[in-house]
Structures are given as structure tokens and as C-alpha cells.
Amino acid sequence: MSSSGSTYGDIHRYEPARESTAAAIAIVLLTVIEVVFVFLFTYGLISGWGLSETGNMYLGAVLAVIFVDLAFILALYRKEFLPDVMIVKKRRRKYEDLYIREEDVDGTTFGDGAWDQVKRAIYPYYKR
Amino acid sequence: MTESSEQSSAADRPSDPRSDDPPDEAAAATNTAGDTSETDDLEALRKEVEATYDFENFGPAEMAEMSLEEWEAAFDPGTWVVGEELLDRVEQELNARVAIREIFAVVERVTDGEDRVIAYSDEGYAVIYKDGSVEGEGTVLRDVKPTVALCSMADYELMDAPADASLPDPDDVPEGSGEFGNLMLQIVAGVQLLVGVGLLVAWLALPSLSTIVAPIASFGFLVIGFFLFLVVANARLSDRFRVEEFRARLETLDAASEEPADVVAEQMAAAADEGRGSDGGAPSETDAPEAPRTADTADEDPGA
Predict the structure, then answer these.
(1) Which spans in chain B are helix H?
(2) Could you tell me which residue ranges the DUF7319 domain spans (chain B) (predicted)?
């Protein structure tokens, strides 16, 4: 599986962004909403809406809308407006590679049976 | 996987016991024609093999234990697609995979001399022969191996290759992606920065606005704004470099494919160096065929 000839960082695939019309319309709408709500929040804060109970809740809701909207903008941007790039990377050994062979599927057992486990757990205290 | 010698693992026999076909099925599908005594011998050996090895629990270690005769008795080559048909299938499948950019290579069918399919890029090559053996080196070999294994299975349905199934022309790679998304992100970032600065100024200037929420919110807006501008800058920069690099890679490949005879000759020389001696040997652990991978990233194995 290893490939000694490969160079890390080689670009394996480069597909330009899709930039579909639906995504473009969606991101414009989301941007408009974002701008409006950011200004609304600032205006509300400065004019003291937050001092009354309902106004406070309203401002909180506006802030929530700002963040959720921003999340959707970033998700759309990542998916539709960035190119699809695949780069050769080195795969580091991970914990899950430890028992990768079929016969090692259960790992290494610590003791045989539950009673042995109990004895091993008690032993240090027993010695003391 | 513990494949240590990539270069020498030239012969990948398609008769892979870890694939879907259970061995007893393969044994059942043997041809009944031929010499009766020979058939009896084969039958006896097969029974013996089935008694000796537990195919329900069959791994590389057991594979290494088997002798060549036992191997050939247990796994009938007739159940695998080989020869001309295999090459056709491999060629179509490779073209389809190149078209969806899963494999970065130029695929060619060479008919002068020995019939074979060649796939090569700047990072290696793979030569597929009629008997299903694959040799080569580099990432191309790694990408091609599972394809050959799949194509040698009769019940594998090939992908449809489009008419123009090849890597893109270097000039066709667009210079960076569109600026529209970047523009939208910049608008959002600009507004956040503006509001952040505005809130801070208002907090300092207006006596009526004394709440601690104002500077905190302003700091939050400023951070978001900087972050978004950073995202856009990074996208533009990396885009430019990646396009350049991808073009350069395609151009080297183009230069190579203009003189295919030379490349082929070079490859054949390289192949001759490695030798095809390991073709018929008992399959050892090191050249055990890989299971087909459909991973999304071009990962390298650890400890290469």
C-alpha cells in the first residue's frame, strides 16, 4: 500500500467551484439578512432595548439569528464557492490502527476472566 | 498493511481468497473436462486442502503456508476474468475513474508486442497484463491495483466512461475559482468590522451606553470580521498556488505523453529491471492484494 515514489503535497484533483445559481441566490439572501441583523443588534443595544425584559429577549434572539446565519453562509461558501482539491498527505498511525489485523480484533487481554481482573485490581492494596 | 517492498510486489494475482467468492464456490465451478486421472488427483488434492485449511478463518498467514499446487487446486482461475476481456474492462474502468478524477494518470492500451494496458503519471506507472498481473511503482500502481482486482470479478459492474475521459488540458484549468463567494464573505466581514468599531466608539463616547455588553459584543464582531477576511485571503492565496501546481503537473504529463514510445520503452526497461519472476510463486504476505479502497483522500500508509 505504501508508495515510495509519491511526493507529499502533490495535487491529485483540482475541480473548480460549482457556484450554482441557487447557491449564489442563497448566499446573497443570507448576506443581506446578516447585514440587516448585525445593524439591528447594534442599534438596539445602543438605544437601550436590552433594559426591558422583552427587549432583552429580542436582542438575544437577534444575536442568535446573526450566528446561525453566519454558520450557513460559511457552510455554503465552503461547499459551493471553494474548489474541490485533493492533496497527497501522509497518513499517520492512529490508535485505531493498533489491532488492524483480523486475528487481533479483540486486542490483548489483560487477565483471564472477571475474577482475575478483580484480583489484579485488589493486589496493590492487598500488598500494602 | 505491512507491505514493505512496493517495487517488487509486481505480480498481483487476481485470485484473491479474501474477495467475495467463497472458495468452495470456486471449487464447484471447475471444468469437468480433461483427463480423468488428473481430475481425480486434483479432486483429491482439493479435498485435502479443504480439510487442512479453514477457509472461514483464512488470513495472510494461512495464505503463506499454502504451496502453489494447493493454491491452484483450491482456487480455480476459470472463475476470474482474464485475457483480452480483462484488459478491456480495466481500460474502461480506469478511464471512468480518471474522468471522475479518482485516479491521476494517462491510460493507454498498447497492442504492439504483448497486449497490455498502461497507466502512468509523473509519480509512477502501472502495467496491467492479460493474466491480471500488475507491475509498476508509485501512486498510480496503488490506485490501479484495486481496479484490476474489481475488474477481474465477473459480477462487478463497470462504470461508464464518458467519451472524453482524460485529464484536463493545462490551459483549461481555470485561474482560481470565481470571486463571487469571496465578495459575499468580504461584505459580511466588512459589516462586522464596521459594527465592531462603531460599538466600541459608541461605548466610549455615549454616556447613556455604560453596559459591559457593548465592548464584549464589539470585540466579538471584530474577531469575526478579522476571521472572515483571513478566510478569504487564505482561499485566494492557496487557490493561486494550487492552480499553478496542478497546471505544472498536467504539463509534465503532457510532455511525457507526446512521446509515448519513449515512455513505454522507459517503463519496460524499468519493469525488466524488477523482473516478473514473482508471478507464479506462492503468494506471500508481502504481496497480498489489497482490498479495494474507496477512501476519499489520497492517504499514504504509515511507515512508508
Answers:
(1) 23-28, 36-52, 60-65, 68-74, 83-99, 138-151, 180-205, 213-257, 260-274
(2) 66-267
Kindly state whether residue A23 falls inside one of the protein's structural domains. Answer: yes
pLDDT band at B36 (very low <50, low <70, confident <90, very high): low
In chain A, how many domains are there?
1
Contacts of A14 in chain B (CB under 8 A): 173, 242-243, 246
**Residue B88: which domain range?**
81-165+263-275
Closest chain A CA to residue B248:
A11
Q: What is the pLDDT of residue A113?
A: 78
C-alpha distances (whole Å) from B128 to each of B3, B6, B92, B140, B166 are 20, 16, 13, 12, 18
Which contiguous run of DSSP H or E holds residue A22?
helix A21-46
How far from each other are the two terminal CA atoms of chain A, in whole angstroms?
51
Torsion of CA B18, B19, B24, B27, to 10 degrees: -110
pLDDT at A12: 81
Domain total of chain B: 3
Beta carbons within 8 Å of B243's beta carbon, 6+ residues apart: A14, B173, B174, B175, B176
Q: Quick check: ipTM above 0.90?
A: no
Residue B9 lies in a domain: no
CA–CA separation, B225 and A61 (whole Å): 21
Residues B112 and B85 in one domain: yes
With a cut of 90, say whether residue A58 has pLDDT above it.
yes
| A96 in reach of chain B (CB within 8 A) | no
Which residues 6+ apart lie within 8 Å of A68 measured at CB? none
The one-letter amino acid at B157: E
* Amino acid identity, position A95: Y
Minimal C-alpha gap between A12 and chain B (Å) = 6
Range of the domain at A55: 11-96
Give the pLDDT confidence score for residue B289 in this predicted structure: 39
Task: Tell me the mean pLDDT in the region B245-251.
Answer: 87
What is the Cα B98 distance to its own chain's centre?
Answer: 10
Binding-face residues of B in 261-280 toward A, CB within 8 A: none
The beta-carbon neighbor of A31 closest among B173, B174, B188 is B188
Q: Do B6 and A90 touch (CB under 8 A)?
A: no
